[in-house]
Write a structure and sequence with these properties.
5-stranded mixed β-sheet, 331 residues, 10 strands, 14 helices, alpha/beta
Length: 331
Amino acid sequence: MKAFRAIALAAAALLAACSGPKEDAKAPAEGGRTAIRFATDWRAQAEHGGFYQALASGEYARRGLDVQIVQGGPGVNVPQLLAAGAVDLGMGSNSFIVMNLANEGVPVKAVAAFMQKDPQVLMAHPDTGAERIADLKGRPILLSDASVSAFWVWLKAKYGFTDDQVRKYTFNPAPFIADKRAVQQGYVTSEPYTIQKQAGFAPKVFLLADEGYPGYATMVLAPDALIARNPAAVQAFVDATAKGWRDYLYGDPSAADALIRKDNPEMTQDVLDQAREKMKSYRIVEGDEGLPVGAMTDARWTAFADLAKAQGVYPAALDPKRAYTLQFAPK
């Protein structure tokens, strides 16, 4: 549970930092706009495209915001950036991160979810009898420490997977490529394409969200202090980002892609293009329920919390509403 301990330490720091008076998102920027520093969870990529689209197209500026995107990467911890006051808003990668903060009593809430489906997948070699997730039982599964503390909980509960299947995933696909029985985690928008390019075969892909995994992804996290002091800025950020995501997926993404490549020179256009198409074809951003981009529901949060509580991840008394607010999410 290394990931939980790390998040708990970050949560404790954030609790201390957020418990006193703090000046969030107060500084007037150029033209009287409110300055917002927003931290992402990784280096710039298509999975952040809606934020970059809103920046490139001027959606943030039109709503009175001067937004700076602070890209993440190895060793970057969004809760710690929030705690230090280095950013005003941050990205919550998955629902476990948000619930962990709530469990620690941290005054931060998810205010929107810009991926209705968590893009996490399991991948298997083709033609090895793996036609359903259930067929992966007993096979070695390459997982990161964070994943063992997150969606692995759901996989064990639903499919009877066991901890002796877990192998260490170091974000190097070579062990998976070399072992036909192996299974590897990934993002539907990233690793399947990378493996096909490197190994010359298309892996079997199982999107956990399409198998019933209830978690959200790519959430916007806002400190309670900012919500209380400047709710208009939070609402403006959510509204502009929702427009940015719609335009990135179904409009012209070229300006956003240019900003992404500027922030992350290692990113290539072919990777951006295929990731954008995967987000559309799998309905990662919109989901299958016909809700507006960025929406959240009490029912989804309750389902997620009930799942985690049943596996002993959180105490039964933890109210999931401590983790989020529907005040700003698109209706």
